[in-house]
Design goal:
Protein name: DUF3455 domain-containing protein
Number of strands: 8
InterPro entries: DUF3455
Order of helices and strands: HEEEEEEEE
Organism: Aromatoleum buckelii
Radius of gyration: 19 Å
Strand order of the largest sheet: 1-2-3-4-5-6-7-8
Pfam family, one: DUF3455
Strand content: over 45%
Keywords: Signal
Largest sheet: 8 strands, antiparallel, barrel
Number of helices: 1
Structural class: mainly beta
Shape: elongated
């Protein structure tokens, strides 16, 4: 029994030691965007890239057109500023170590800056590999700048046009507590 307790504590220390070195401080996030209490912050990454939009006919009104979100495309950076991966359609986050996480939006809240894309809470749907993203359970997108749909006209003449809008954000990756 004592050996099991020591083993659990050693494992918990190993997990905490390996994740908190890259983790930042807990972000000030609206209550609706907080992950479950059974999760802990493991990694904080900055994203710089674009939000891609396409001018398309509306599904409910084919004679009206609007900018439709297509995908993100961004590089991911650790705190010292080293590029460690990328973020793209899925939405997917992929590390240079080969690990990936794909997630789905669970909750959203308007960004404090109305010119920025919303803040999100995402739930991991699948993970692959054995690197930094392999144990991810939740992801928060916060501290966004830019990325909103284009201000340009989107009409029949612009149908099919793609616009890449610069954005930045901080992504917080959570894992299950030991």
């Amino acid at each position: 029994m004592k050996d099991r307790t020591v083993m659990r504590l050693s494992l918990a220390g190993l997990v905490l030691g390996s994740t908190t070195s890259q983790a930042g401080t807990l972000p000030a996030i609206p209550e609706s965007l907080r992950p479950p209490a059974t999760e802990m912050l493991a990694l904080e990454l900055a994203a710089k890239g674009v939000q891609i939009y396409e001018c398309k006919a509306r599904a409910d009104e084919p004679t009206r057109f609007e900018w439709t979100f297509k995908a993100p495309e961004a590089d991911l950076f650790d705190r010292p500023g080293r590029r460690i991966g990328k973020h793209y359609a899925g939405p997917t986050w992929e590390s240079d170590d080969g690990s990936k996480v794909t997630a789905a939006v669970k909750a959203r809240d308007n960004a404090p800056d109305s010119s920025a894309i919303p803040w999100l809470l995402l739930e991991a749907k699948s993970t692959t590999g054995s690197g930094v993203f392999s144990r991810t359970t939740s992801i928060q997108r916060a501290h966004t700048a830019g990325g909103n749909s284009p201000a340009e006209t989107c009409g029949e003449a612009q149908a099919g046009q793609v616009s890449r809008i610069p954005y930045s954000a901080t992504y917080y990756f959570y894992v299950s507590k030991p």
